[in-house]
Amino acid sequence: MFEYAPAPESRDIVDIRPSYGLFINGEWVEPQGEGRHKTVNPATEEVLAEVAWAGEADVDRAVQAAAKAFPVWSAMPGAERAKYLFRIARIIQERARELAVLETLDNGKPIRESRDVDLPLVAAHFFYYAGWADKLAYAGFGPDPRPLGVAGQVIPWNFPLLMLAWKIAPALACGNTVVLKPAETTPLTALAFADICRQADLPAGVVNIVTGAGETGAALVNHPGVDKVAFTGSTEVGRLIAGSLAGTRKKLTLELGGKAANIVFEDAPLDQAVEGIVNGIFFNQGHVCCAGSRLLVQESIAADLLEALKRRLGTLRLGDPLDKNTDIGAINSAEQLARIRELSEAGEAEGAERWSPACPIPERGYWFPPTVFTGVAQSHRIAREEIFGPVLSVLTFRTPAEAVEKANNTPYGLSAGVWTEKGSRMLWMASRLRAGVVWSNTFNRFDPASPFGGYKESGYGREGGRHGLEAYLAV
Amino acid sequence: MSERTERLSVRKTYKLFIGGAFPRSESGRSYVVTSSKGDFLANAARASRKDARDAVSAARKAFSGWSGATAYNRGQILYRIAEMLEGRRTQFASEVADADGVSAKKAGELVDAAVDRLVWYAGWSDKIGAVLGSANPVAGPYFNLSSPEPTGVVAVVAPPAGPLLGLVSVIAPVIVTGNTCVVVASERAPLPAITLAEVLATSDLPGGVVNILTGSAAEIAPWLAGHMDVNGIDLTGADPELAVTCEELAAENLKRVLRPPADRVDWLADPGIGRMTAFLETKTVWHPIGI
């Protein structure tokens, strides 16, 4: 392994305020309650800023602002809405470096990922949906598809700004106004986005950002003035939201958990497959709902593949997320770290064999080394439950039918991977995998033009592409 | 020798339709079905929780074969159902007239509309994928294709009114795309549903693709809504209270829910494609392009 000198990205480019209010009706406002919350850098446990904890009254104010902005925004010609979205996309590009550093500070993900994956996709998403705003009549939802009204959107901490883009861009393109709640551990890029809306001269109330935790989210999705709810997060919370919306006319889309199978056949290109497995589960510290957390490898090549995989994992660099050489950043929070530890201990206790490369762990911050479990049975918790961390469970199979059986043996159905050089087998597998995204001879690819979303308990509705418009139109 | 009297007719026993067979309710229960005027028509089976569970396993068993059949084949079978229905036009018209209290002429029109509806959906089988699918121009060297796939096993609470046309209008869009279903027929007017089952059973439709239960929707629908092996539920025929109960239960495994319509449905109107899209998933397949 080569020695690398530290190459940290400078954090001087970001200007974090000590304290943030709520962004409602185009203004920064103080919350009505006293609640405040400190957001920390998970790599150092340093407090970055204090953010407001929005209560019911604050949420109500935000929803009213959005409702007031709706008639103007929805009546605006699509071409004009498009220009606002193009403006936002451009400002994101202009401020990409600052936003990438801010994302890495607040989230703990490597700067290489926030700079090369998150931010380009965020800008691309706004560009993509900007283009739809004046072409909705051609999208296949009738000659004059109408927006829904106020969208209440709740997003997770794993891709804070990207999830914001996935929610806000299509909502605005279709003519809705939004109230968005970022995750409590990663509010800073959403708050920076509020400033971008101001720079773009977006009409007041079209985008409102309220910070807080679960209670704020519940107040938002249950607010009677909300016409549409979009949630990305855990299946557990998704169930609660689906239940609480029963009997309302609110439209709901959910993007929830996953336990994706990454299936490697004996004829797969081994080195490419190893890169795909690593990208599948160690990208973003495994904090990815569509992560390839179950490796299904054909028995005949299991030993060779595991050897190559372990060799590759030995070269991953864990540490300072701002260092441009870092592959594995920090776990986002102490709570998440505790959950990963608990499930990993359950994996050992249930009889699977645990392995991690030699990997120095920084003294401060939340860290978990890349971990591989072999000898995993389908009944083990680490094969059934979403870990949402850098932990890979390895299972084997003999026939394609067995691979399909095992891959589909989960209540989730978000994504799957297939590695084989045989086209007919790839398509045979792809047609039988009950998952919303199938990556073949690749993994964890995202694009604004490509619909993303799950089958079964991974949720419903699609984000991205023409399909993503449906969630924000009265169809 | 006595005088020859008018022949006594042989009545039909109305049973359930599960897995292609016609069992009685395992509970042994039945209930009286009357015409719109209040005259006795038949004793229909009153399905139980166990019948609902049996119907779900029959639907699950049929899913891989039916969803794996070619779209062309599914379309042919839906068309065949229309043919069989047309052949029994008189029988259905009489049952619909009894159930709905409409004139014989109107009943005939409703049967015709049901036949036409099946033909319309039959034609969608190999077109819906082209309309809803897309080749996505992603920013990289990848082949990227999205196509619709059936959701799985769908529970259907059929509308109380429109015992034939309403029923056909909720079943056809669910199965034409490859789903299998468990239908709770109109409680008040279940007889055309069971006669429709006889049509389905003779149309080359694999057993289990459509399962029909008669009885109390308020009793059976919550079992289906809470069943962990049901993937979606159409609440068109549920009253507001039942719909809320079912939607809450459906949240447990994130079933796709089609809520009851806000306004009264005109079953003779153009149905649009919304009933098909409600129970379709989008699958997106990526593959690198290279040499």
TrEMBL record, chain A:
Entries under InterPro entries matching the protein: Ald_DH/histidinol_DH, Ald_DH_C, Ald_DH_CS_GLU, Ald_DH_N, Aldehyde_DH_dom
Domain (Aldehyde dehydrogenase): residue spans on this chain: 28-474
Gene Ontology MF terms in the entry: oxidoreductase activity, acting on the aldehyde or oxo group of donors, NAD or NADP as acceptor
Keywords of the record: Oxidoreductase
UniProt keyword Cell membrane, yes or no: no
Entries under Gene3D superfamilies matching the protein: Aldehyde Dehydrogenase, Chain A, domain 1, Aldehyde Dehydrogenase, Chain A, domain 2
Entry keyword annotation includes Secreted: no
Active-site residues from the entry: 255
Top-level division of the source organism's lineage: Bacteria
Family statement drawn from the similarity comment of this UniProt entry: Belongs to the aldehyde dehydrogenase family.
Protein name: Aldehyde dehydrogenase family protein
Species name: Microbispora catharanthi
From TrEMBL, chain B:
Domain Aldehyde dehydrogenase per the UniProt entry, residue ranges: 27-257
Alphabetical keyword list: Oxidoreductase
Residues annotated as signal peptide: none
Pfam name, any one: Aldedh
GO molecular function terms attached to this record: oxidoreductase activity
Record InterPro entries: Ald_DH/histidinol_DH, Ald_DH_N, Aldehyde_DH_dom
Name recorded for this polypeptide: Aldehyde dehydrogenase family protein
